[in-house]
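Recap from last week: sequence in, structure out.
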Amino acid sequence: MPQGTCSVDGCDRSTYARGWCSSHYETWRQCGTPTRREIPREVRFWSKAGVSTVNNCWPWRGHVNDNGYGAFDHGPAHRVAYELVIGPIPEGRHLDHLCRTRGCVNPYHLEPVTAWENTQRTTNVVALNAVKTVCDNGHAFDDANTYVSAEGHRHCRACRAEATRRYRQRKAGAR
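Predicted C-alpha cells:
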C-alpha cells in the first residue's frame, strides 16, 4: 500500500492510489477529477438527472433518501432542479410534485404552494380528514356541531355527547 499524504490541498489522509486518499481516488474514478470543486454544480446535477418517457418524469439517478426524494448537495434534488431552470422558490413555499413521483426532478412537474396546500393535495390522513364534511357517524361538520381541540383536531359534538352518555350509563351501572 502506498505511503504518504493525499496530494489534494487541505487533505491529510493517507494515500490510497495515484497520490490521493481513497475518497479523492473514488471521486476521480466517478467524475474524472479528484475534487468536485472543479466540476460546476450544474454539470454535477444534470449528470444525475434522467429523462424518461413515463409521464415525462426526470427520475433522479443519484442518492435517494428514505422518503424517496432525490438528494443533492445536502438538500432535495427537485428544489435544485427548480432553481436551475425556473428560478428561486418563493419565500415560504414548498414544491408540490404534480406528477406524484417523489424522485422526479422535472421542474415543470413542480409547483410552489403553501405547506397547507401541499398537505391537502396528498392522500394522507391529515388531508383526508381536512376535507370531510361529516363525521364517521354521519353528523355534519358545521359551526354548531364541531369543536376544535387544543391540538387542532376537529371533533363532532353529537358523537361526543353520545360517548359521554354511554360512559355515564356504564359508571351508573357499576355502582
